[in-house]
Design brief:
77% of the residues lie in helices and 0% in strands. It is mainly α.
């Protein structure tokens, strides 16, 4: 919503438009949930693999108790969550054009530009 990735559909004029809007919205939400979930899982696995450079002795000395696999899993979860939040904050600071360029192909960008031109021409009248 913040970067106008979803086109404004206006108020549906008939039942078919409402159904299409519902399907479009559900597909968008499911795509986002699947994408974020898979990226989170990938980041977690990469972080967990990277934690192998921290020796068991060092981690245990830092924690003040013997290191266990659960400590590595918790550390990977913490780093993954912090990375996800940092990425979300960073993307919200990005400008709308850059986000749309990354999210859409050329044809979609051309369609949006044409629609904005028509709306601007209509507003000038």
């Amino acid at each position: 919503m913040a970067h106008h990735l979803q086109p404004a559909m206006g108020l549906p004029r008939h039942h078919g438009s409402r159904v299409n809007a519902l399907v479009y919205n559900v597909a968008t939400v499911l795509t986002l949930v699947a994408g974020v979930g898979l990226m989170y899982l990938g980041l977690y696995l990469a972080t967990a693999a990277a934690l192998t450079v921290i020796s068991w002795d060092f981690l245990g000395a830092t924690l003040g108790e013997p290191a266990a696999l659960a400590h590595y899993a918790t550390l990977a979860w913490l780093a993954t969550s912090m990375g996800t939040v940092a990425g979300a904050l960073g993307s919200s600071a990005e400008d709308t054009i850059a986000i749309q360029r990354a999210a859409f192909g050329n044809r979609e960008q051309e369609r949006r530009q044409a629609q904005e031109s028509r709306e601007n021409d209509h507003a000038r009248r």
